[in-house]
From TrEMBL:
CDD domains: Sigma70_r4 (cd06171). Belongs to the sigma-70 factor family. ECF subfamily. Residues 108-159 form the RNA polymerase sigma factor 70 region 4 type domain. Keywords: Sigma factor, Transcription, Transcription regulation. It comes from Algoriphagus aquimarinus. It holds the Pfam family Sigma70_r4_2. This is RNA polymerase sigma-70 factor, ECF subfamily. NCBIfam families: sigma70-ECF. Residues 16-73 form the RNA polymerase sigma-70 region domain.
Amino acid sequence: MTSIEFSYSLNQLSGVLKPFALKLTRDLDDANDLLQDTMVKAFTNQDKFAEGTNLKAWLYTIMKNTFITNYQKMVRRATFVDTTENLHFINSSASLIENSAYGDFAIDDIYRAIDKLDDIFSTPFLLYYRGFKYHEIADRLSIPIGTVKNRIHIARKHLKEDLMVYKHVN
C-alpha cells in the first residue's frame, strides 16, 4: 500500500473512529484531540502496519492505547506525593473527644420502647437480641418457631414506630 493509499484509507476511517473517541473521552474537544493523535501515530508508524490485515482494528487499538497512556499521564500529573515527615495529624482519632450524652439518650429511649412492648413480644425479641436462635427461643418459650418469628417481627415493627425520631440520625 502506497503512502497516498494509506493516507486515503486513514481519512476514510476517521469518521468511524470519532464516535469511539467520543465514547472514551466523553468530551468533544478531547475526542478530536485523541482522533488527531491516533491519525498522527498511524501515519508515522505506517511501516508497522501489515498489509492485508484489518486497518480499522489497528486504528482502534492505537486509539485505545493512546487514550490509556494519556489517562495515566494525567493521573500521574494530578497525584500529589507528600514527602515531608508527618509531624502532626489532622482529624486524628487519637485526639477525638466523643460526647456520649446523645448515645445515652438514645439507649434510654430504646429501653423505654422495649418496656412498652407486651411481654409476649419483648421476651422473644430480647432473647433474639441476646443471640439466641429462633429454634432455641421456641424451645425455651415452648411455642412454635413460626410464632417466635412473628412476635419478633411485630416487636421490631413497634420499635421502629416508637423510635422513628432516630430514623435519619447518623
